[in-house]
Amino acid sequence: MPQKLTTMQRPVPSDLAISQSAQTLPIVSIAEEAGLYADELEVYGMHKAKVRLSARDRLVDAPNGHYVVITAITPTPLGEGKTTTTVGLSQAIGAHLGKKVFTCIRQPSQGPTFGIKGGAAGGGYSQIIPMEEFNLHLTGDIHAITAANNLLAAAIDARVHHESYQSDAKLFERLCPADSKGKRSFSPVMLRRLAKLGITVTDPDALTEDEISRFVRLDIDPQRITWRRVLDTNDRYLRGITIGRGANEKFERETGFDITVASEIMAILALARDAADMRDRFGRMVVAASRNGTPVTADDLGVSGALAVLMKDAIMPNLMQTLEGTPAFVHAGPFANIAHGNSSIVADEIALKLVGSDGYVLTESGFGADIGMEKFFDIKCRTSGLVPDCVVLVATIRALKMHGGGPKVVAGSSLAREYTAENLDLLEAGAVNLRKHVENAASFGVPVVVAVNRFPTDTDAEVELVRRLAQEAGALDAVTSDHWANGGAGAVDLGRAVIAACEQPSDFRYLYPLEMTIKEKIETIAKRMYGAAGVEYSSEAEEQIDRYTRSGFDRLPICMAKTHLSLSHDPDLKGAPTGFIVPVREVRASVGAGFLYPLLGTMSTMPGLPTRPAFYDVDLDPETGRVVGLF
Amino acid sequence: MPQKLTTMQRPVPSDLAISQSAQTLPIVSIAEEAGLYADELEVYGMHKAKVRLSARDRLVDAPNGHYVVITAITPTPLGEGKTTTTVGLSQAIGAHLGKKVFTCIRQPSQGPTFGIKGGAAGGGYSQIIPMEEFNLHLTGDIHAITAANNLLAAAIDARVHHESYQSDAKLFERLCPADSKGKRSFSPVMLRRLAKLGITVTDPDALTEDEISRFVRLDIDPQRITWRRVLDTNDRYLRGITIGRGANEKFERETGFDITVASEIMAILALARDAADMRDRFGRMVVAASRNGTPVTADDLGVSGALAVLMKDAIMPNLMQTLEGTPAFVHAGPFANIAHGNSSIVADEIALKLVGSDGYVLTESGFGADIGMEKFFDIKCRTSGLVPDCVVLVATIRALKMHGGGPKVVAGSSLAREYTAENLDLLEAGAVNLRKHVENAASFGVPVVVAVNRFPTDTDAEVELVRRLAQEAGALDAVTSDHWANGGAGAVDLGRAVIAACEQPSDFRYLYPLEMTIKEKIETIAKRMYGAAGVEYSSEAEEQIDRYTRSGFDRLPICMAKTHLSLSHDPDLKGAPTGFIVPVREVRASVGAGFLYPLLGTMSTMPGLPTRPAFYDVDLDPETGRVVGLF
């Protein structure tokens, strides 16, 4: 039975202090309580375990639990406590309302932990613990992605290098060397390339000269390599770099590094059904174009099997626990921007089987509902086939006031008085943002519960106003929650509302069918989710759309890359703007992950460090050896 | 009791096939058998565990076991089976001769695993298992180094960036912001910088304007940043790069990536006594010079505590097992070239306590005895204070014939007939190399046992000749071993010889005292270990030696960076050359690790991928999900 692992103190201590004071349970106990068998675990220390996908196989005939997605209104730059709400709500349902529950959240990037942001394990008395393990290496999944992503990158440049000075015959000799008996053979990954080329011969010695040439020469255009390298570090000086400046290289080219969570490999980890599906998706990733425009894939480079080997442990979800001893999966964390921003399908699937028909799986989607929730429904649920039962939409009085015209909210600066004193006018004006998100969520046919994440300065009148407006907008219920200060006990009302909502019939439907054209899909999202009047395309985007359509990529879902700070493409448009035209600068393809992503602005894919990075406070306590200064 | 975990087959299958067919024991059983308590373990899955340093504390008063270092003659590019011998000898001593034993080896870089080299877990029936876990992520130590190394790199460029446009006052405001009560404070790491500057004030508001300026402005010269970024990937196009080419950066500069194991952080991991010592060493690392020539350290950048936090798990040695169920520590793997090439001190220390006075710890040093063994004695043993009892010098008939004038040995090409048929003349001529290494080893006052790692093509007459010549050169014994084909059973004679050697008195002494000048130390190593007639210094090296001497770094030991393919600095000089002059191109300082490293040639610190990288064979078996194609 879940239990409170810490004693509450006032004022609420730092997240790290709370986490470190908790009587964490052995992860094997959490696993056993969750219904996992010992041979389904790969334990990593006392407080983390990987869970084998065989648990899902074992439970294939068991009924799924209720599937709840946690999302938010358009946030301020400070964030509105979505993870904290997800965790607090889990604690309420599991430790206070006696239901089986599972929290499914994303693994955070380590980069921002040392940069400007601090930890991402929830906060206050609603946390995943131990928070330092959550925020640091965890079980190494992101490191595995870094390794896989960069092996692929190295393979691309090395291939261009080696093709540049060798004849077709020499390349063939190297790629398919004769063994001691003079016999040549293809490795299995080579057969994938041959199949793609329409060459059915499996004996290397039977290839014609033309077939040899087509097989060995990828003829990658160095100017059309789209695959970038990654690091899980905020390193802005790597955003744009020139490589190949060593003394013995054959070419130089411009490229750069992204933060690891922006890698397509991360997006694939979150969407893959199992190791075999993951491996196939890796193979399909398009990383470059040849000089004649042919897309070049990881399979063409012969590296897709090695990527799968590097990622074979990463596909197992990571089991941790909340402060009240309920189980949590922390697994995958694709960028909510250029990717779909949702934790893994496999974690949700295992969790749904484990909690069973009377249980609840709470899964968090990134950014606001216009981004993370829409992608949850149209990409993640479409890929998994899972049907959601309830949307929890997190709102704060602070963010609503901002949407009503309140002063700009800036991270690191103190809040204006509008945000700390009662102001019903600003709040009512800003509720248009909440209304739009409630309507959006409801349009998917799923019941919506609004969670007002209450801050100490919020007044009863303010909270009451939000509740009324939310229900007027179509929310099934709207409930205040103060889980940050009070843990699960603070979210019991919210828990009851969510349980009630899950009893409602869900009439889930996607926003668009895949059969629509690329432009129809983009316009459906822009108009119906964002409130846009229309979409305009750059000539580059037009050309890309044509090309993807010809290549058959037009049946993929759309993963819009846009700011999370507005319902529109313009971060300065607060509230619920209308009448704007969404500009599509560029459309890129993540063929392995299985989506196209239109860019509606300049998306930074590599954060930087501020003048005083968060790492200034981080250290090991010389007395105890424990981590200090992580927030 | 250790036991055979696999049944031997003929012909000997691939390393991976042997490893995967083994009945691996649970790592908790290996740990218990080794004398570890459950609360001293952090288990990572079934077959790996980290061991807390508290085990060493618990056993502080226990006697140490016998300490045996495994090294080799000057190898061919194929390597002469040093790791395989280390493992096979362990299996003999532990599983056949009934002694407590521990194998301590380095964690291999993942880069070469996918490049040209394949695995590094030993081979045949003398392996650390599971070999795919050994060769891939293990428990993430190398990934942690990548993360730490690159956080420091990002911190350097970000600091230059932020100093470039802000006044001293503004920087101070950012670095020591006032809290809500208007109070400023220094973080602990800032106090380290203040102490270095001789500023004793601990209240930020009490600093003079001049002190503020000295405190906040590192004034790093972008052209004198020596810290490079790292990846655990063979990526030659990153050897030389231009960074800062993004649209919004303040400067560009030339730099590059090394392979992760070349990071000074790896060298420190291998030498640190505990987390606190590691943290202090991180803080001392010199990463750049200011415009006026002042060395800039990780402490100055405020990042050393965060590096220690990233590395806090990495300092715990990783426990694995051999094919015959004896325990092995796999921990740290510094470059044997620009660093000292030995596994960690903490692993050896814990192992020596665990095996006790009647037990044996076998630790491997990198490259030939002129490099890895010399650094083992003069750097690793000097740092730890441990006294070695025996040197095992691995030799092969193949390498000795090469030293005697045999044809060039090239990786990937088939061996010339000289190496596969009896040729006593070549062998006898090449024995000069063996003799020099035996004499070198003996000069440290430690008994030497020569292990002839026997290949199937070696004849009895050849083996007998090597044995005789080795003993004439001063080896206590010289024993044939065929552990590759026969596991521990094949190394029983070698095991007996090592046990006997450990009964001999050891009169261990360093090659040079630290009080010698830098040049005296370099010349002692060059003349006495390599057989050089003298040393010549570039003007750059002269300048660096002067500078280090003025800075007080002249009391550090010397870590020569030279080719492993010759006793000299010239890879083409085989045998035991004399009369040559060693050129010192440059002398660099690893102040945190605690050594100076003279460069005797161009050392590649980032490997590349060949035309057909090893990754072409690596994949997941679609039926079983197991790794295939790792060699």
State the end-to-end distance of chain A: 29 Å
> Rounded to an integer, what's the Rg of chain A over CA atoms?
25 Å
The helix/strand class of chain A is: alpha/beta
Shape of chain A: globular
Major beta sheet summary of chain A:
12 strands, mixed
- The number of distinct helices of chain A, counting runs of at least 4 residues, comes to 22
Average pLDDT confidence of chain A is 95
Note down, in words, how this protein is organized.
Two copies of one chain form a homodimer. Chain A has 631 residues and is α/β, with parallel strands linked by helices. The first copy, chain A, is 36% helix and 17% strand. In chain A, the strands form seven sheets. In chain A, strands 1, 2, 3, 4, 5, 6, 14, 15, 16, 17, 18 and 19 form a twelve-stranded mixed beta sheet that branches. In chain A, strands 7-12-13 form a three-stranded antiparallel beta sheet, with helices on one face. In chain A, strand 22 (586-590) and strand 23 (595-599) form a beta hairpin. In chain A, helix 8 packs across helix 10 (209-216), helix 12 (275-284) packs across helix 13 (304-310) and helix 16 (397-403) packs across helix 17 (424-442). The first copy, chain A, is globular. The two termini of chain A are 29 Å apart. The model of chain A has no long low-confidence stretch (mean pLDDT 95). At the A-B interface, strand 1, helix 7, helix 8, helix 9 and strand 9 of A face strand 1, helix 7, helix 8, helix 9 and strand 9 of B.
